[in-house]
Amino acid sequence: MRGLNIEKSVSRLDGFLSGIASYSGNIRDYSAYAFIAPLKNERSCESAIKDHFSWLPDLDFSDIQVLQHGLRDLEVEIRPFLVRDFRYGNAEEANKLQNYFSFRIMDDIYAAINGYKLNQVIKLVATPTPQSSDSVFFCICLETDVIAIQFNNDINFIKALRIGTLILQA
Predict the structure, then answer these.
(1) Which residues, in sequence order, are CB contacts of 20 under 8 Å at separation 6+?
(2) Least buried of 82, 103, 111, 169, by fewest C-beta within 10 Å?
(3) Residues 6+ apart with CB under 8 A from 158
(4) Which of 122, 146, 2, 113 is nearest to 61 (CA)?
(5) What are 40-83's pLDDT values in tens digits?
(6) Pair type for strands 118-126 and 134-142
(7) CA distance 6 to 22
């Protein structure tokens, strides 16, 4: 059974990521989430993510990368996803925000995993379709759970909704 601390920390992180994403591009161009997916029967984090998105049976990953230095690499890898198409300043200011936000996110992650054994950190790039969001998942693999951070570029998905070409799966 997972502890309340991990639930609270990941919930706080989810809200923080959502707020950051709303400052990138137009209000619905990008989205970001954090959630916990259980590792069932010692399966892979890819399986845990696919189970979490069971309504997307075609979800597949085109790139799977183990971050060799774990959380240290994660802090750097998430930066480009934090401030995209920034409209409120120059590149230097955007870079400073990316550094600050990644530091804050890592604080929440460390609070969430306190007392848990970290196995590995994995980056998963979902195989996009022309009508779907481009999604990247960073998976913090613990013994029984995966803390997933999901970054989406929703521009193609929103465009498909607007022109009515989105095909919904039954």
Answers:
(1) 32, 82, 83, 101
(2) 169
(3) 28, 29
(4) 122
(5) 876 789 999 999 998 888 889 999 999 999 999 999 999 999 98
(6) antiparallel
(7) 24
Cβ–Cβ under 8 Å, residues 98 and 89: no
- Tell me which CATH code domain 4-163 carries: 3.40.1460
Global pTM reads 0.88
First vs last Cα of the chain: how many Å apart? 33
152, 133 Cβ separation under 8 angstroms: yes
54: exposed, middle or buried (Cβ count in 10 Å: 0-12, 13-18, 19+)? exposed
In single-letter form, the type of residue at position 96 comes to K
Residue pointed to by tokens 């401030």: 83
What are the tokens at 122?
Answer: 């994995």
The closest alpha carbon to 138, from 123, 120, 119, belongs to: 123
